[in-house]
Design goal:
This is Multidrug ABC transporter ATP-binding protein. One of its GO terms (biological process) is response to antibiotic. By secondary structure, the chain is α/β, with parallel strands linked by helices. It is built from 11 helices and 12 strands. The strands form 3 sheets. A 6-stranded mixed beta sheet has the order 5-6-7-3-8-9, sandwiched between helices. Strands 2-1-4 form a 3-stranded antiparallel beta sheet, with helices on both faces.
Length: 301
């Protein structure tokens, strides 16, 4: 029996797979007569940050809702923290954290009171002062939620999602509306959750630069199928593309596109004449890779 078949059999029997926080095999979803997910397979290892990318309508939200236990799948095997999410109990849910795109409840609550109240539902919540400092809301602890700015409200959304020290955190467009400074601080927070708290994170975002910066691994979902699974560098190498070489010589700027940047740069540096300065090689970016894969899938469809 193949390793993947053994793992799938263990999922069906409710036995957790060591070192894996999320395991999905043959996930299918149908709404009426329309298939949204077509046999999706992927893993998320414990302590890993994985970004799920894809165009609108690709099936990202459906996949996440199934993993969170909020939607019943049409077929396939799914294990999240050792349980089938379709049968997850309250203790299991207490190990999950969810940061939605937007949440506008509890406007009359004060920030500190709300976090303290929500924390009582968990066995090992963050200390409220520690949590406020972690998300950059210490000065707003006494304010009513309804008076917070958009960026501050987004920080509160994050605080609510992690108040219970989740083992697995779902982030849905987490930095939407953040200014550059707030985005950088949030990225630092996510790195701390992964590196210090050993939190497993599944991130969905349309910000490819954010995914490239944060994710250990990237999944590209399109047309209800996983098109690619790997690090940003691995995905870039899987797509044939040209590299752009830029340099300056004798005060003049040059740009050249080539299939083999290594050979071109070697020949360039060996050329006689003025020395080469400001040499830069721009290889295929995650955006280039993503667009190429999605467009190829649309073409095949």
């Amino acid at each position: 029996m193949r390793t993947t078949d053994v793992a799938a059999d263990r999922v069906r029997q409710g036995e957790p797979v060591a070192g894996v926080a999320v395991r999905v095999r043959g996930l299918r979803m149908r709404y009426g007569t329309k298939d949204v997910l077509h046999g999706v397979d992927f893993d998320v290892r414990t302590g890993e940050l994985v970004a799920l990318l894809g165009p609108n309508g690709a099936g990202k939200s459906t996949t996440i809702e199934i993993l969170e236990g909020f939607r019943t799948r049409s077929g396939g095997d799914v294990e999240v923290l050792g349980k089938d999410p379709a049968h997850g109990d309250e203790r299991w849910r207490g190990q999950l954290g969810v940061v939605l795109q937007s949440w506008r409840d509890h406007a009359k609550w004060r920030v500190r009171e709300l976090l303290g109240h929500l924390g009582r539902y968990y066995p090992d919540p963050f200390d409220v002062d520690e949590l406020l400092a972690l998300v950059g809301l210490t000065e707003q602890g006494g304010q009513r939620v309804g008076t917070l700015s958009g960026g501050q409200r987004r920080r509160l959304d994050v605080a609510i999602g992690i108040v219970g020290r989740p083992r697995l955190l779902f982030l849905d467009e987490p930095t939407a509306g953040f200014d550059p400074q707030a985005r950088r601080e949030f990225h630092d927070l996510v790195h701390r959750l992964v590196d210090v708290e050993n939190t497993t994170v599944l991130l969905t975002t349309h910000d490819l630069a954010e995914a490239e910066k944060l994710a250990d691994r990237i999944l590209i979902l399109a047309d209800g199928r996983i098109l690619a699974d790997g690090s940003a560098d691995e995905l870039a190498r899987s797509v044939e593309g040209k590299a752009e070489v830029r340099w300056t010589r004798a005060g003049e700027r040059f740009v050249h596109t080539t299939d083999d940047a290594t050979a071109y740069v070697r020949d360039l540096l060996n050329e006689p004449g003025e020395p080469v300065a400001d040499l830069e090689v721009r290889r295929t970016s995650l955006e280039d890779t993503y667009m190429a894969m999605v467009q190829r899938q649309e073409g095949e469809r």
